[in-house]
Amino acid sequence: MLKRFLCLFLCTLFLLPSAQAVEGMDVSVFQGEVNFSAARADGIEAVYIRSSYGSSGIDARFSQNCAAARSAGLPFGLYHYLEAREPENARREAEHFVSLLRTQRYDCRPVLDFENYRGLDAGQSTAAALAFLERVEELTGQTPMIYADAYAASSKLEPSVAAYPLWLAQWDAQSPDLSGTAWAEWTGWQYTDMGQVNGIQGYVDRDLFTDGIFLREEENSFLYTVRPGDTLWALARRFGTTVDILTELNHIEDPNFIYVNQLLRIPGTAPIERTYTVQPGDTLWGISQSYGVTVNQLVQLNGIQNPDLIYPGQVLLLGVDG
Q1: Overall domain count for the chain
Q2: Does the first or last residue of the chain, that is N or C, have fewer Cβ atoms within 10 Å of its Cβ?
Q3: CATH code for the domain in which residue 146 is found
Q4: Whose CA is closest to 220, among 302, 150, 322?
C-alpha cells in the first residue's frame, strides 16, 4: 500500500521543490541489523543513520550501520538527537557529534534531530537549535540540516533557523505543508514512521529527499588543530593542497607562522582519526605496544610534555588515516 502511495506521489512532480527526488529511510539501533543491500534493491537511494545523542551517547549500531551502508554502495548521512535545552550544552553536543562525523566518509549533510522542545518557548528552542547548527557548521564547513515535526517548525523555531535546510516530519499529510513556518521549501519529508523496506524487520521511517541533502564540493573541508612540529608546507603536502590555498582560506598573514592548537580550515575530506581513551593503569608504552605505534609518535601526535604522565579519560590520537 505504501509503495503504491509513493509511486502516485512521485508522479505528482509539482509537489517537489525544483530538485531530483531521492527515496530514503532513516535508521538507528531500534531497527536492529539492517540488510542495506536488500534495502537498496528495494528502491532506497539514501539513508540517514543515527550516530549519537546527548553529550556522550553513541548509537549502539552506529559503526556497523555506516560500514554496512558503505559496503552496499548506499549514500548515507548522520544525525544527532539533541538533548540540550540551552546553547552552551547544545554546542557541547555538536562537538560530540562532529567527533563521530570525523570517523566516517559520509555523503549527505549532517542533521540535527530536534524533538526535545517541550517546555521551551520559541526563543529558547531557537537558541539551542542555532547553537548546535552553527557549531557543526563552524567545525565542518558544511551546512547542516534540521529535522523537526510540523508543530516545532511552525511554533518553536524562529525565522533565523530557516537559514538551514528543513527535513520535515509530517505523517498525516498528502504532501509537506510549510504553512506557518519560515521555510519556503523542504529538503526532506518523513512521511511515515510505519514504512516497510526489504532488509528490515518491522517498521522503519520512510522519507523523500531532494538532492539538496548531498554535500556540495565546496563544502568539502574540515578543521584541523595544529600540533607540535606542523608547518603549512608539511600540512599542504599531507592533505594534497598548497600553502597559498591554506593561507587564503585561513586569512594567514605570515605563512611561516602557525601555532600549536591553532584551528586551520583544510580543503578536502576530513581524515579519519584513530583515538584511544586512557584507562586506569595505562602507560604510553603499553598503549604503543597494543596499537602498533611508538611512544615518540604518541608524544608528538598529542603534544605530551611528560611521557610518564597520562590520566584516565584522556583521549589520545593514535594516528590519522587519509
Answers
A1: 3
A2: N
A3: 3.20.20.80
A4: 322
The residues with which 319 forms a beta bridge, in sequence order, are 274
What separation in angstroms does the CA of 46 have from each of 3, 37, 193, 204, 225?
16, 12, 16, 14, 32
Strands of 151-282 (E only): list them: 166-169, 188-195, 204-210, 221-225, 263-267, 272-277
Per the listing, cell 547553537 goes with: 131
For the record, the C-alpha cell of 233 comes out as 608546507
Question: Residues of the chain whose pLDDT is less than 70?
Answer: 1-19, 218, 269-273, 320-322
Q: Determine if residue 123 is left, alpha or beta; phi over 0 gives left, psi from -120 to 50 gives alpha, anything else beta.
A: alpha
Same domain, 140 and 191: yes
Q: What pLDDT was estimated at residue 12?
A: 41
Candidates 82, 136, 149, 71; CA nearest to 110 is 136
Tell me: do 164 and 65 sit in the same domain: yes
Q: How many Cβ atoms are within 10 Å of 5's Cβ, its own excluded?
A: 12
Q: Could you tell me if 259 and 121 lie in one domain?
A: no
The candidate with the shortest Cα–Cα distance to 77, out of 125, 53, 112, is: 112
283 SS3 class: coil
Q: Which domain holds residue 137?
A: 2-216
Residue of 14, 30, 15 whose CA lies nearest to 170: 15
Q: What's the rounded Cα separation, in Å, for the pair 318 and 303? A: 12
User: Do 171 and 308 share a domain, yes or no?
Assistant: no
CB-based burial of residue 8 (10 Å sphere; 0-12 exposed, 13-18 middle, 19+ buried)? Answer: exposed
**Which residues lie below 8 Å from residue 16, measured CB to CB, with a gap of 6+?**
208, 210
Q: Would you state the pLDDT for residue 270?
A: 66
